Amino acid sequence: xxxxxxxxxxxxxxxxxxxxxxxxxxxxxxxxxxxxxxxxxxxxxxxxxxxxxxxxxxxxxxxxxxxxxxxxxxxxxxxxxxxxxxxxxxxxxxxxxxxxxxxxxxx
Length: 107
Prior knowledge:
Blueprint: H1 14-25, H2 31-44, H3 49-56, H4 60-73
Helix pairs in contact: 1-2, 2-4, 3-4
């Protein structure tokens, strides 16, 4: 017996589709953003959650999670949620702002 379609319904505006397609094709965007945009586009194009999960190597619950978040928050829902815990102490890339001393590796 074929699986029923998801009860989630996503309808995109022209601007949303354009932005998602731009993210999905981007070479400079974070990989997770690209995959999330591709998942939403596949969902809108009528693919099943199971089919999308197989295609992108994700679990069905993860595909459903991103579709649900997109329904609630639209494109901003594809961003990572804030996490609890202490913020990073050192900035990525080792950049140091003015007035701070940089750490040096032992030579």
